[in-house]
């Protein structure tokens, strides 16, 4: 039975390593633990540089740490890729090599499995 | 496809001044744990705290103590609270009532026969819980509130189907 993953697992990893919110904030270069709390409660999404820092701190890929968000983005990208495949297939020049390469990439995106399924 | 055991379970164990909780995504994957204090023996506040936990974790299964089973020694207030939660949350999450017999089966019996032994066993299994492990309770001491976390983890672990060892391959008949 598939189940929806949590928005993020920052709190789990932080507590697993015995770190406080203030300590994580210090590692991320923030002033106080408030920011960590906001990231954990999904009231604020960290920027790309902070996501890299979080990956380094916990040693986990961002797709695992922000599993729920990652799944939402994956579904949105897949829907867009599907639409692009349909549009490319409808073109009269659908047989050219360039379009073949594009279609190969887009089909890989469409067939991408959820992270949980890739793990198991 | 995710395995059946990878469901998210929220286990709740009320104590005298609040509720202890544990969230697992699989029998070996502890996601969150802790105590939610209600400031006193207040069922309305405890029910609200549990409601918030369900909203936050959106579990597939809610594991509660089976207050009617043999071995359960819950007071009337907690029995009423557990009954109220099971009835109220039953329509949005699968409620699983765990008996003490099932909880004792989460580990080897000499260890899991007592609450303290079970807490030690669970702290070994989930090292992140070691900081929360209460000291050994003497006869004159009241139960530590943190024991509610270990009871909740026990309920959550017990709510997963037990892994049975693979059956031995059939022996070949000697020629």
Describe the structure in your own words.
By secondary structure, chain A is mainly alpha-helical. Chain A is built from eight helices and no strands. In chain B, strands 3-2-1-4-5 form a five-stranded mixed sheet, sandwiched between helices. In chain B, α2 links the parallel β4 (61-65) and β5 (94-98). In chain B, α1 (43-57) packs parallel to α2 (76-89) and α5 crosses α6 (147-158). Chain B starts with 7 loop residues before the first strand and ends in a 17-residue tail after the last helix. Residues 1-5 of chain B have low confidence and may be disordered. The A-B interface holds A 1-4, 6, 9, 11-12, 15-16, 18, 116-117, 120 and B 1-4, 6-8, 30-33, 57-58, 60, 128, 131.
SSE layout:
The complex is a heterodimer of chains A (120) and B (175).
Chain A: H1 10-16, H2 21-28, H3 33-40, H4 48-58, H5 62-65, H6 67-90, H7 97-110, H8 115-119
Chain B: E1 8-15, E2 18-25, E3 30-37, H1 43-57, E4 61-65, H2 76-89, E5 94-98, H3 100-104, H4 109-112, H5 115-125, H6 147-158
Parallel strand pairs in B: 1-4, 4-5
Antiparallel strand pairs in B: 1-2, 2-3
Helix pairs in contact in B: 1-2, 5-6
In terms of quaternary structure, what is this? heterodimer
Structural class of chain B: alpha/beta
Fraction of residues in β-strands of chain A: under 5%
How many helix segments of chain A? 8
**CATH topology (fold) name of the largest domain in chain A:** 434 Repressor (Amino-terminal Domain)
User: Any idea what the shape of chain B is?
Assistant: globular
Structural class of chain A: mainly alpha
Instruction: Write down the overall mean pLDDT of chain A.
Output: 89
Largest sheet of chain B: 5 strands, mixed
**CATH class division of chain B:** Alpha Beta
Helix amount of chain B, in percent?
A: 25-40%
Report the radius of gyration of chain B as a whole number of Å.
17 Å
Order of SSEs of chain A? HHHHHHHH
SSE string of chain B = EEEHEHEHHHH
Distance between the termini of chain A: 13 Å
Distance N terminus to C terminus of chain B? 44 Å
Rg for CA atoms of chain A: 19 Å
Number of domains of chain B: 1
Question: Could you give the count of β-strands of chain A?
Answer: 0
Overall pLDDT score of chain B: 84
